[in-house]
TrEMBL record:
CDD domains per record: SPFH_like_u1
Protein's UniProt name: SPFH domain-containing protein
Residues annotated as domain GYF: 310-356
Organism: Myroides odoratimimus CCUG 10230
Residue ranges of domain SPFH in the record: 26-234
Amino acid sequence: MNLFKKLAGEFIDIIEFLDPTQNTIVHRFERYQNEIKNNAKLVVREGQMAVFINEGQLADVFSPGTHTLNTQNLPILATLKGWKYGFNSPFKAEVYFVSTKTFIDQRWGTKNPIILNDNRFGMIEVRSFGTYTFKIADPGKFIKEIVGTSGTFTTDQINDQLRSAIVTRFTDSIGEANLPIETYAANLNELSTAIFAYMKDDFEVYGMDVTKFLIENVSMPEDIKKEIFELSRLNHVDLNKLMQMKAAKAMEAAANNPSGVAGAGVGMGAGFAMANQFGQAMAQGQTTTQQQQPMTNTPPPIPGAIAVSYFVALNGQQAGPFDLEGLKQMTTNGQLQRDTLVWKNGMANWEKAGEQGDLTPLWAQTPPPLPNM
């Protein structure tokens, strides 16, 4: 039986490899006792390289094509074997077929969350995942550094090592970028490009070439994500109107609650009066509770009359707009004076209240300042 295997091995004169899996990076051509006949045919297909190893030493490398194995086509192996005048008997050598095609859709991701120190949110945990593609650029170096003596080497066997290198580079890159956490989604392309440059150097050590690297997502805890969404909405919301709306809803809810303010006999009218005072307090930027002003019955504006509506500068902040009745009340309280800055629609700039003709009646209600004694 052993003699039959030996004779069968010696008569194998075609060396080739067809990959049925599509994920094999390296395959060692198996023969009986590694014996190759003189003038045997080596078939290397497109997307492959054939590497000859002699007693652990890298010898000749063949590109795609059909090659006749003899001393002319095996110059390095002939030197290692000491063939000076050719040979006629079978010789021993290991033949590795290395796939040089691009291996696409390789997945990577962070097994454990990465801890970052954000300027606004403090220490937070993020996770990320994406894809990358690679190919073998130097078959001899790849066999020496990664494969070793393995008979077959697939993408599954190297993915863990490559993922570790990618996650390390990802962690370093986002730390050095020092970007606010809410801007990661808008900068995935920039982060991918930065990490891609690092990865090419890392993979080159193994005889590999990274052809593409993409970050698909950077995720964060749900509470941080919710807070970021709320902050982004506030940048597009009129806070003055928002607080007035919330106050009105709160008063309405209290009026409909039998055990609340309405049940105590105050009623809807008092509730809306409180909401109106609260809205004015927010507009004027005050933080202390104002005393409730007595309610007075005033007639509605005369039909066809033009309503006066001014914004008033109070404590360095814009308040209003206020109608004539509101301005009268502010004059009485001393909040509105002649040199107080005001503005209404149609004015180019803020001007003093005392210079506005339609506000002249306000000063007739108050005595002039005392002369210097």
